[in-house]
Amino acid sequence: MSRTILITGAASGIGLALTQRFVATGQRVIACDLHRESLDRLQQSIAGVRTLAFDVADAKQIEAAIASVADDPPAVLINNAGLQHVSPLEQFPPEKWQQLIAVMLTGAALLTRAVLPAMRARNYGRIVNIGSIHGLIASPFKSAYVAAKHGLIGFSKSIALETGNNDITINTVCPSYVKTPLVDAQIASLAATHGMSPAQVVDEIMLKPMPKRQFISLEELTGTVEFLLSDAARNITGQSITIDGGWTAQ
């Protein structure tokens, strides 16, 4: 069955992998990102994808973006847009702290708010939030990211209760480290913060807590999202689906 899927942060990393996967399976994908030029490159490489450039931290831009696709509103929303900043709280720029919360928590809430009326009218909707292991546990120097991802899980539970009378589900996928450009940038930041080499950061900070000691693959992540969109998952809602190589089992 072909559905319209709106994906934020679609120009790179996890969002790009999801876009590629769903276009390949015949879905109508609306790839969204902050930067128009990134989306133009994406359109050149992936045939048939529709794109929207807007800031997920801006309520008016969200409303305009969703209004522009009212002819075929998304049946699926994947809240994926994200960013990271690594710093002790005393040195954390306030504007950067607020930006992380605005993009990864408030933005996800505002987008969900914008797509819900059409989902309710059709009595169908699937919302998947790309969370993180840091929605379940904490690490030092990532206070804004950890706060946003913890908040995303609580938000999802509330909306699961609000949408219980419709065929709408909302869940949060919580992977540990996925090898993406965002994680590559974190390696450099953590190396500087901890006074370690990049290889030590990977071995001692990122993979050491995971009994399986390996990065989560994009294929694992996209496969989990696909499952949450399937009929087999229609009664899975308000849940955190953890892909962490055994990290939280300890």
TrEMBL record:
Domain of life: Bacteria
Alphabetized UniProt keyword annotations: Oxidoreductase
EC number(s) per entry: 1.1.1.30
Keyword Oxidoreductase part of the UniProt annotation: yes
Keyword Oxidoreductase: yes
InterPro entries: 3-OHbutyrate_DH, NAD(P)-bd_dom_sf, Sc_DH/Rdtase_CS, SDR, SDR_fam
A Pfam family of this chain: adh_short
Signal peptide: none
Protein name according to UniProt: 3-hydroxybutyrate dehydrogenase
GO molecular function: 3-hydroxybutyrate dehydrogenase activity
Source organism: Povalibacter uvarum
GO BP of this protein: monocarboxylic acid metabolic process
UniProt record similarity statement: Belongs to the short-chain dehydrogenases/reductases (SDR) family.
Coiled-coil residue spans: none
